[in-house]
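README: folding subset

This subset contains proteins for which both the sequence and a predicted structure token string are available. Records are stored as plain text. Below is the entry for HPr family phosphocarrier protein (268 residues), shown exactly as it appears on disk.
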Amino acid sequence: MQLCEQDIFISDEQIDKATALQRVSEKLVTAGNTTPEYLQGMLDREAQISTYLGNGIAIPHGTPETRHAVLNTGVKVIIFRQGVAWGDDNIAHMVTGIAARSNEHLEILRQLTRVLSDDSVPQALQKAKTPSEVLTILTGTDTDNNPQEEGIAGEQATFVIHNPHGLHARPSAVLVKFIKQLDCAVTIENLDNNTGPVDGKNLMKVVSLGAKNGHRMRFTAQGADAQRALHEIGQRIGQGLGEMVSVPVTPPPEAARQKRSWLSRLFN
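--- output ---
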């Protein structure tokens, strides 16, 4: 799945968040990606948790309950020159509406968040005059040259992601919200695609790790209660970060199975 000029729009409207969501929904409906019902899913999602990532970007999308309203996976980008108040004093200039039937959109989302982590990119987007210019900015930046966070020395732990669609926006937001409450610095690395380390308190950078189901994430914590912090992070990941997950049960070693089998025969 790739972003193209037909997916990008520029608006000089001065509108509120609800109207911006309606504009994105209209683009998705016109392109045949969703039915009009999907708009309610985006509104419901915002009521649950903000889809603002930081650096002027928001990624509104629906809830699982409105996934049936998705006809074809698609992404629509609207650059709002005047900015849109997205709550908590955040102003969104780039609103990326996502309609996904599964996880086809995750790679393009990862690419966008990596590019937009460069502070100069959002400013350039506000000055862009055509969809072609926007596309060049979003795809022409060499993200491999973007500096990574410096690794920190401290306690480490590795956890496996069991969320069906990986660490997309919602579970990432839950994770970052918790890490922000900790009295220690936390960095995260994706050991399966060699991305990171990134600041665990930066939502956009956490999403940019592109963590998928089954990926191993290494957390490093430094500061007061670092061990406790890692333990609680692991608990929340195991609980799904607000989503239903199925954690595979590791079968017992052969010797243990034989021992239990012998005991069961003894007492049966």
